[in-house]
Amino acid sequence: MKEMIQLQIDRGEMLPLMEEFYTIQGEGYHKGTAAYFIRIGGCDVGCHWCDVKESWNANLHPPTETVNIVENAKKYSDTIVVTGGEPLMWDMTVLTERLKDKGLQVHIETSGAYKFTGTWDWVCLSPKKTKLPTEEAYEKADELKMIIYNKDDFRFAEEQAAKVNKDCILYLQPEWSKRDKVVPEIVDYVMANPKWKVSLQTHKYLNIP
Fold first, then answer.
1. pLDDT at 195
2. Where is coiled-coil annotated (predicted)?
3. Is 12 annotated as a binding residue?
4. Which of 45, 57, 194, 203 has the highest count of CB atoms within 10 angstroms of its CB?
């Protein structure tokens, strides 16, 4: 039985589902838009400031049949956001094919550290210093979301911006626990470097998931 489940996970027919919920996209280009979020467990990127550390251990999240995930998603929204954890640790081909078959727009939020699988309408790339994106991730990114925790993150953001495609939209977003300190720094930086835009975690200000 365990072998069969593992085979289905390897094929993307089952995924370690942490949670799924209907809410308002709070960040980046699509902020303010109603969307259904599918949060996949498992991540080894290991950001010390991660606000979803409970997603890291995939074994804590039950393998769930992809067909059931899709059936739930289609009830709520035309826009589906696949996030994590790091969803690209798993094969996203089956999930995205089934979502697309339902006529849904499918977005991903990823560090880009793993090989791309699946078909995506929007790619939010959020690189991390601990495990850098693949070249393919830079090419596919529709938006680059750089989390600013300290001053060195501005340097890292510029390094990453130099690698994405020319149409990629560039965002600087304060790490939530440091927002009072870094928001003024981000504002000043964007005003001096207007190729960047400010992204805020507006869902936290709205007190929604």
1. 98
2. none
3. no
4. 45
